[in-house]
Design brief:
It holds the Pfam family Hydrolase_4. The protein is of the alpha+beta class and 88 residues long. The protein has 3 helices and 2 strands; from the N terminus they run H-H-E-H-E.
Amino acid sequence: MSVILGAPLAARGFETVALDNLGYGLTQVKPGTTPSYDDWVDLVVDFLVHEQCRDDRPIVLYGLSAGGMLTYHVAAKAPAALCAASSG
């Protein structure tokens, strides 16, 4: 998560989560598999649905640059009333 927003929010007591998207960070994909952009969107939507079932607090999405575009597409695909989106 961006230190521009994520770290300051976490320091103020907000729960912040930074996902490693498919093929990046610590995620693992089946050898020979190339995740698509739609797979990325679906991963985040699935995560949000899971989180909303676990905890009904409001969810705010945030992304910079390509992450901002991903945030936009996730918010468009996510069930209505699930989250608010912000892209930078």
